[in-house]
Design brief:
- There is one protein chain.
- Helices cover 39% and strands 26% of the residues.
- It is α/β, with parallel strands linked by helices.
């Protein structure tokens, strides 16, 4: 709430001398009766009328406060924004092969990738974002959407056991994963189209080579950011054995050259993440590189809202007058 005539609010300072006057001199203005000795009334309880007498003063002060607020012209502001968003269409292509269970990233590669991707999605409310997952085969987990709540739910349901259970072929089909993501973007009308491809291996499955998929992306004006996750040597991998889990070291075989060439071909960038912090920083950098354009026009209109205060002043004044001529009436 704002006030058009703020200077009138200084009148409220007049309440201070009024309160002081009331406390110091009210007894002198109250009717009294002369008696030879008032000792007998020393401990007499006060009636409810006596206790409520300050109510008149409070109602008088309330009336004054409400009148001052009305003079100050309280106003509310009705504002709205008209925004034009030039969004970006983004497909996340995520490797879900069984090697993504390696624990060189904490708690493991797949969970770290999901966590960082979720933060990335949450920070881009105006963009169409979709999710493709791949192992030895590829399919779309979620088509591009601005319903990011549904997208995040589907992201959290991503598991590497779909390959372990034989639902899809295990392996790393980078070309198929990229081609699937590009296929989702080919009919996009957005001025910026992006694929963020994350993998921890090298292409060993699929009917489409990574560079063929990259050339298709280039022809469609799609920029590809490639991210290789995993340490530079070996990584601890949990293997289920009878009675529990046994950790073995598996070699990290990321095809840095192919991932770099994919990014270079499509005017994107190649990144390596050897730990969770580096992966987080990579997504932050991509987020800064691919910012949506947002034009905002703001409008506002002010409305006077003195009516409730004026009504309160009238009610308080009438109530104070009513009490004065009824309950607190004085006999001359």
């Amino acid at each position: 709430m704002e006030f058009a005539n703020k200077e009138y609010l200084f009148l409220l300072l007049l309440l201070i001398p009024y309160i002081i006057w009331y406390l110091l001199y009210r007894k002198k203005s109250e009717p009294t009766m002369r008696m030879s000795d008032t000792f007998v009334f020393r401990y007499a309880p006060k009636s409810w009328k006596v206790r409520l007498m300050p109510l008149q003063m409070l109602l008088r002060m309330l009336t004054f406060v409400m009148i001052v607020i009305v003079l100050a012209r309280p106003q509310t502001q009705n504002s709205w924004k008209q925004k034009t968003v030039e969004g970006i269409d983004i497909m996340l292509a995520m490797d879900v092969s069984t090697s993504m269970l390696a624990e060189d990233l904490k708690p493991n590669r797949i969970e770290a990738a999901k966590q960082v991707a979720a933060e990335f999605i949450a920070g881009r409310p105006n963009d169409n974002i979709g999710l493709t997952i791949f192992a030895g085969e590829s399919f779309t987990q979620c088509p591009m959407t601005t319903d990011h709540s549904s997208l995040l739910n589907l992201l959290q349901n991503v598991r590497t056991d779909i390959a372990q259970r034989g639902l899809i072929e295990d392996g790393t089909a980078i070309g198929m994963g990229l081609a699937n993501a590009v296929g989702r973007l080919k009919d996009s009308k957005a001025k910026s189209k992006v694929v963020i491809l994350l993998t921890d291996g090298s292409n060993n499955r699929g009917d489409i080579s990574p560079m063929t998929a990259a050339e298709i992306a280039k022809s469609l004006g799609i920029r590809v950011y490639t991210v290789g996750v995993g340490t530079n040597k070996v990584a601890p991998y949990p293997m289920v054995v009878a009675g529990g889990v046994q950790y073995v070291n598996i070699p990290v075989e990321i095809d840095n050259e192919t991932l770099s060439n994919i990014a270079k071909t499509t005017d994107g960038d190649f990144y390596r993440a050897t730990n969770t912090k580096e992966l987080h920083n990579i997504y932050q950098e991509i987020d800064q590189l691919e910012k949506s354009k947002l034009n905002v026009k703001q409008y506002s209109k002010k409305y006077d809202v003195y009516q409730p205060f004026a009504l309160a002043a009238v009610i308080a004044l009438l109530l104070e007058l009513l009490l004065r001529i009824t309950i607190f009436r004085r006999i001359p």
